[in-house]
Amino acid sequence: MWSIYWRSLIGIVLAIGLSSFLHQHLGILELIANPNYHPAIFWCSTSLIFSVVSLFQSNGLVYIFWGKKLRYTKNYWCSLNLIIISFFLVLAFLSIVIHYSFNEVFWSHYKLFAQPVILLLCPLLFGNLLKCITKHNNFLIR
Asked: In CA terms, which of 63, 72, 83, 136 is 20 to 30 Å from 57?
């Protein structure tokens, strides 16, 4: 589980860094008039980075970080990649829902405090979720 955790964190940090770099240099967020949508656009673009990498590396971005040494099956890596892409889409959706459902103070606290905690804790859940999935589907090790 820890091996998946730190590999997921490395992949997430690199994808967020690349997304930030692209947003800074391409000016994507300046095209959006309402700044309340910026976090949602950012998380969607991060999930897009994971999706684009999975077109070139079928096992996903997390596999690139010494994933071959773990000897998990292709289904395991594809499931992890799908979970991470879904995670960023859920973050984008949550950002919009919280913005429209709560006041601006709560929304700003969510962006400043909850999202970083979610980004650190959810990769732990990814490992546990995949462990449960692999017990039921028996595709853990080649």
From this structure: 136
